[in-house]
Design brief:
about 0% strand; globular
């Protein structure tokens, strides 16, 4: 039987997402080695690590935008969207709970999955905005820089205190980064997802052949991983941490 358009996947997009997952795994494994003191690295300030984190999150959110463009173009209904969104939201809560167990003083309360849950809602609502998503994405990326300038000129006043509070720091308009193991606020990261959404819409309309890429063995492996990104995201850290704990016990 012919494949239904609504269920169709593109290896090119899945492989790109899979590449982000592999890169993330290497990064997290190094982070775990540092946590167990097998290596000594500053993952919070060393540009070698902070820029990698930025690139990984950017690639992940860009592909999420591509995926939303494909879903909308293929007529994905709201019921299916809500099912997927609920999976992301529940997994975000599980990340919060597990990180509180490991890092009670810096647990994750608005990490990549929390940000995804909010940004997917915005992306779905704005999917029809077309080329306006490009400048809006630029504005979203620039907003934290603008906010930082405002904070620095006004000093540590009441406005800074409001946006630095946990009630609003998820927006990203903070004067200082909160103490947490993972922080992916709506701004600037919504801009990256919007760019992915805009790029996906343009490719589907103007260059659909780009999505017909047939990868080799490595690409097929990455594409398979990319199709199970949420499940993989949730299990890879417990597996690696458990393995390192077992190694330490031995």
């Amino acid at each position: 039987m012919p494949e239904r358009q609504s269920a169709r996947r593109f290896d090119a997009v899945d492989a790109l997402r899979g590449l982000a997952m592999v890169w993330m795994t290497v990064f997290h494994f190094c982070f775990d080695l540092n946590h167990f003191r097998y290596i000594r690295q500053d993952f919070y300030a060393d540009p070698f690590w902070t820029w990698q984190r930025t690139a990984i999150v950017s690639l992940f959110l860009f592909t999420a935008g591509l995926g939303q463009a494909i879903a909308v173009q293929q007529g994905q209904g709201w019921p299916r969207f809500w099912r997927r969104w609920a999976q992301v939201a529940v997994c975000a809560l599980l990340v919060t709970a597990s990180s509180y167990w490991m890092y009670p003083g810096s647990f994750i309360y608005f990490g990549v999955l929390h940000g995804m849950a909010v940004m997917l809602l915005i992306a779905r609502a704005t999917a029809g905005w077309g080329r306006w998503l490009w400048p809006l994405g630029l504005l979203a990326v620039a907003m934290p820089l603008i906010a930082n300038y405002v904070h620095s000129t006004m000093g540590n006043g009441q406005i800074s205190s409001i946006f630095d509070s946990r009630a609003l720091n998820w927006l990203g308009l903070v004067s200082r980064k909160p103490v947490t193991e993972d922080y992916v606020p709506v701004l600037p990261w919504l801009g990256v997802l919007w760019w992915g959404l805009a790029a996906g819409s343009w490719v589907l309309k103007e260059r659909p052949a780009w999505l017909q890429w047939h990868p080799g063995a490595v690409g097929r492996g990455l594409a398979s991983l990319g199709r199970w990104s949420l499940t993989y995201y949730m299990v890879h850290q417990p597996v690696m941490i458990g393995a390192l704990m077992a190694f330490a016990a031995l």
